[in-house]
Amino acid sequence: MATQSEAVLEANLIKQLVSLEYEKVSVVSEDELLANLKSQLEKHNKKSFTASEFKRITNHLNKGNVFEKAKILRDKFALTRDDGTNDYIEFLDSEHWCQNLFQVTSQVTIEGTYKNRYDVTLLINGFPLVQIELKKRGGELKEAFDQICRYHRHSYSGTMFDFIQLFVISNGVNTKYYANNKKQSFKQTFYWADKENKNITN
């Protein structure tokens, strides 16, 4: 088995995502994530928000646990504009999924109990919804899983990463996914499968 570093795996993954029409962006801090969220929501809704309007949006988004946040993302938000009028804001288009805006970024750094840097993050309409943790080719998948468990303890809480819905762990040979849940175990990680139920691992 050829040795391939985590950095090369990451670069190849990003290249593949760009070929699938993800926009590659450099968004590497919580402040940049919020600025990007504002810009993507404005594009998605075809309207602009003042700083105070966006603050009302983020106040609405900051409620609840990961499951409640998933529901918030599916619902529209009645925003009271600065001029007193009401407007409906859509966070995700689940009916016409291709109308959403897809981005990929890497090495986002969040300061919590400890400073953590995450490998690859998929953003949909500015929301970090998928986190991908990589290990060098052939490395232990469990190491990537344990690393995400550390992120849960040290830096996710109270940040934009509370919106993560899905984790992906890969060593370039095997790739698995699992839902966001602080109390997950490695037994709750799954391979993708084809229509014959054969595992898709790479």
How would you describe what is shown here?
With 202 residues, this protein is of the alpha+beta class. The protein has five helices and ten strands, in the order H-E-H-H-H-E-E-E-E-E-H-E-E-E-E. It has helices at 6-19, 30-45, 51-61, 66-74, 141-156; strands at 23-24, 76-80, 86-90, 102-111, 115-124, 127-134, 166-170, 175-179, 192-193, 199-200. The strands form three sheets. It has a six-stranded mixed beta sheet, with helices on both faces. It has a two-stranded antiparallel ribbon with strand order 2-3. Strand 6 (127-134), helix 5 (141-156) and strand 7 form a beta-alpha-beta unit. The two termini are 13 Å apart. The model has no long low-confidence stretch (mean pLDDT 91).
Biggest sheet features: 6 strands, mixed
Low-confidence stretches: none
Q: What's the total number of strands? A: 10
- The rounded distance between the terminal residues' Cα atoms is 13 Å
Structural class: alpha+beta
Q: Give the overall pLDDT as a whole number.
A: 91
Which series of helices and strands comes N to C? HEHHHEEEEEHEEEE
Cα-atom Rg, whole angstroms?
18 Å
The backbone outline, from C-alpha atoms, is globular
Widest β-sheet, arrangement of strands: 1-4-5-6-7-8
Please indicate the percent range of residues in DSSP E strands (runs of 2 or more).
Answer: 25-35%
**Tally of helical runs:** 5
Q: Roughly what percent helix?
A: 25-40%
Features:
10 strands; two-stranded antiparallel ribbon; globular; 202 residues; alpha+beta; 5 helices; 33% helix
Structure in a nutshell:
This protein has 202 residues and is an alpha+beta fold.
